[in-house]
Amino acid sequence: RDLNSRVRLQAFGSTIAGRSFKNLYLTATAKDRGFITADTLLVLWDTPEAGRLKNIAASSSFAGSGWINLRNPDMPVYKFEAQLDGVNLKNIAPDAEPATNITATVQIDGRGFHPDSLEGSFRFDIQRLATPEQSIDSLEFTAILARAPDNYRDLQITSRIADISVRGNYRFTTLMDAITRQIELVTQAIERG
């Protein structure tokens, strides 16, 4: 019926789900029929590429904490914070470019997983994104997504580079097609003079 549990995991020099790491620490709880907390999640990696590639740190880490409420599986609610320090994205995303590493802070406070049910506040502060060829410093943006009945959505993205606002009745699954079509119409109008 009810499962209330607490997990503490420490692993050293291991591989989980095909991903190798130097150290992993996790403390988490599951209780009240679907409320899960991750009090501590810390993963440390050595970076063998550091000696032969510029812009790549010798070691990296991921630290995070947060919670998720899965009592309503159709509309989960969650809040997470994470700090990535020199993380090679290949360690966590199998399709990432080799030796792409990132230092960033991520804060997520939202609900829903499917793009058309998603709402909340999502903040990304990238202090450094590096590949062996180039480095990008300081990129910060916040996305706030509000959703009302009948597919009305209000998406606000703010950054130092630009602010974007998309309001109206749309579905995310068709939004990119609509934006692409609008760009084509504006381009045609400019070409006609």
How would you portray this structure in words?
The protein has 193 residues and is mainly beta. The protein has one helix at residues 172-192, and strands at 5-16, 19-31, 35-46, 59-69, 77-88, 101-111, 119-130, 135-147, 152-159, 163-169. The model has no long low-confidence stretch (mean pLDDT 85).
List the helices and strands and how they pair.
Elements: E1 5-16, E2 19-31, E3 35-46, E4 59-69, E5 77-88, E6 101-111, E7 119-130, E8 135-147, E9 152-159, E10 163-169, H1 172-192
Antiparallel strand pairs: 1-2, 2-3, 3-4, 4-5, 5-6, 6-7, 7-8, 8-9, 9-10
Jot down its keywords.
single chain, 193 residues, mainly beta, 10-stranded antiparallel beta sheet, 58% strand, flat
Summarize this, please?
The chain is built from one helix and ten strands, in the order E-E-E-E-E-E-E-E-E-E-H. The chain is mainly beta.
Question: What distance lies between the first and last C-alpha atoms, to the nearest angstrom?
Answer: 69 Å
What portion of the residues fall into strands of 2 or more residues?
A: over 45%
Radius of gyration: 20 Å
Main beta sheet strand tally, sense and closure: 10 strands, antiparallel
Residue windows where pLDDT falls under 50 for at least 5 positions = none
Spatial order of the strands forming the largest sheet: 1-2-3-4-5-6-7-8-9-10
How many strands in all? 10
The global form is flat
Structural class computed from helices and strand pairing: mainly beta
User: Total helix count?
Assistant: 1
The oligomerization state is single chain
Q: How much helix, percentage-wise, in residues?
A: 10-25%
Question: Averaged pLDDT, please?
Answer: 85
Order of helices and strands: EEEEEEEEEEH
